[in-house]
Amino acid sequence: MPDTETGGHRGLAAAAIVAATVAVYASSLGASFQFDDFNVVVSDPRVQSLRAWWGAMPGIRPLLKASYALNHASGLGVAGFRAVNVLVHAGCALLVGTLLARLARRHGLDEERARFAALSGALLFALHPSSRSLSA
Q1: Which band of pLDDT confidence, cut at 50, 70 and 90, is reported for residue 31?
Q2: Which of the 8 DSSP states describes residue 74?
């Protein structure tokens, strides 16, 4: 199969993974903060701004808390937090697909079966109910 065709398949698979992930989680964008979000995101003064975050360094989970500070700075509220989480989850699903494709080829699957296994696994990761705790 020519590289352009393989690249086309990769592009379609990536688009399918992102579209499915966004479609499943789109209804969560209007939801409120949940559970420990109030302590970790809403009330924690260390994530209310980038200046506050920087002043709290070094700290635990600096990248995560930086994302909270950036979300606060965006002014998009809960929907912004959730949209970022959905996009990060879609990105992780794409990485899972890439890793599964490489692993499948390494273990002898032909290109078509490797693509199918990778797409199936990435969609399972993205859409499995245990991953549906995408709180802000």
Answers
A1: confident
A2: H
